[in-house]
Write a structure and sequence with these properties.
- The complex is a heterodimer of chains A (247) and B (113).
- Chain A is an alpha/beta fold and 247 residues long.
- In chain A, 31% of the residues lie in helices and 19% in strands.
- Chain A has helices spanning 43-58, 74-82, 100-106, 125-132, 176-179, 181-185, 205-215, 229-244, and strands at 33-40, 62-67, 89-95, 112-116, 142-146, 163-169, 189-193, 220-223.
- Chain A is globular and about 70 Å long.
- Chain B has 113 residues and is α+β, with helices and mostly antiparallel strands.
- Chain B has helices spanning 3-20, 41-51; strands at residues 26-34, 61-67, 69-73, 78-82, 97-101, 105-112.
- The two termini of chain B are 31 Å apart.
- Classes of the chains: A alpha/beta (247), B alpha+beta (113).
- The A-B interface holds A 17, 19, 22-24, 30-45, 120-122, 124, 152-153, 155-157, 181-183, 185, 214-218 and B 1-2, 5-6, 9-10, 12-13, 17, 21-23, 27-28, 31, 36-39, 85-88, 95, 103-113.
Chain lengths: 247, 113
């Protein structure tokens, strides 16, 4: 039972630990004993993530986790999507401080909820759960979860999204994919952003793509510039395609 | 520095298991950390030693089993350990592989009194 919202999505039962000895069976056993556990350390987070996903599913909302370094263009991408005719969406924003990103999205007439993580360098499923109850899920088709700008920590946390989109911008350099393999391995779609700057940087698009496909051979990759609306349209089409597979 | 959050989750699990087993303290915690789990082992150790104080794990020894990236190639019908995160069969270059281990973090075993 969901404590925050009173919804009836029940937590899945987890019984994956088996104890070799049990104190209740051996009341005399006072000295040390070893139990085999074998549980994922982030098990609780993963359960909550599953719960979030059920919420999105029940409202027929596709949830997309957007991850990248700070300044790769996550918020600008969302603004650019808002400027085109497409699906209806909302945004759950994660930042250490300020509600600047949510303000930018709201200024476009898009519902947004800001989570201020304080010192936490990532969003976890519990934070996103709070955010999703602030979203008008009945009115939207897609919910973006704009994660804290960071190529390391968010990769370890399932937040309950259906798809992960990871951005890398041209000024960051084409070596970022190889340097942060755990993050780019998680991507369903990689966006190479700010491609209008390609003439000014030594960013090799082909070697970036090759590096990405070593980590994830079937990953989709789109080159994007918010200055070229046809590239934004490609991102929208990709999302529409993924939506159509979940109807 | 998400290692701190991960260690907090680990300590909560330890507390739950200790209670369920009527233990008064945990003396040893064994975890398995995958090479591609995104966890830095040194930071994980530092975080554990910092946060264990005044918890059930105060005197606990931490043992980390380092799990290399392990894949199963469907074409070779064999398991291989990958040195680098290049997700292809090192023997036959097939992409028809599945990850067996090395991308996650597990609490494996607890020794308690």
């Amino acid at each position: 039972m969901c404590q925050d919202c009173g919804c009836s999505i029940t937590e899945t039962e987890h019984h994956h630990h088996h104890e070799h000895q049990n104190v209740h069976d051996n009341p005399q056993l006072n000295d040390s004993k070893t139990i085999e556990v074998i549980t994922k350390i982030l098990d609780k987070n993963d359960q909550e993530a599953g719960h979030n996903r059920s919420h999105f599913d029940n409202h027929n909302v596709l949830a997309i986790n957007l991850m990248s370094s700070p300044g790769s263009g996550k918020t600008s991408l969302l603004e650019a999507i808002a400027d085109q005719e497409s699906f209806k969406f909302g945004v759950i924003e994660g930042d250490l401080e300020t509600s600047r990103d949510a303000d930018r999205i709201i200024a476009k007439g898009i519902p947004a909820y800001q989570i201020q993580t304080g010192t936490a360098c990532h969003l976890d499923a519990f934070m996103v759960h709070k955010g999703l109850h602030a979203m008008p899920l009945e009115e939207i088709d897609v919910c973006f979860i704009e994660n804290v700008g960071n190529l390391v920590c968010p990769a370890s946390y399932d937040v309950g999204s259906h798809l992960n989109v990871v951005l890398v911008s041209v000024p960051e350099g084409d070596d970022k994919i190889e340097k942060y393999p755990v993050m780019f391995r998680k991507a369903d779609l990689i966006l190479i952003t700010k491609t209008d700057l390609l003439p000014y940087f030594d960013f090799d698009v082909e070697s970036a793509k090759a590096a990405a496909r070593k980590l994830k051979p079937n990953v989709d990759i789109i080159e994007v510039s918010t200055k070229q609306s046809d590239t934004i349209k490609k991102v929208i089409n990709w999302i529409e395609f993924k939506r159509s597979l979940r109807d | 520095m998400h290692e701190y959050s991960i260690v907090q989750a680990l300590l909560e699990q330890c507390q739950t298991h200790a209670q369920a087993n009527d233990a008064t303290k945990i003396t040893e915690v064994t975890v398995k950390i995958g090479a591609q789990s995104g966890v830095e082992l040194h930071l994980f150790e530092v975080a554990f030693d910092t946060f264990k104080e005044k918890t059930i794990c105060d005197e606990a020894n931490l043992i980390i089993e380092h799990q290399p990236l392990l894949i199963y190639c469907n074409d070779c019908a064999q398991e291989y350990t990958l040195e680098k995160p290049e997700y292809v069969c090192p023997e036959c270059q097939s992409l028809y592989i599945k990850v067996v281990d090395g991308e996650d973090m597990y609490l494996m075993r607890l020794e308690m009194e």
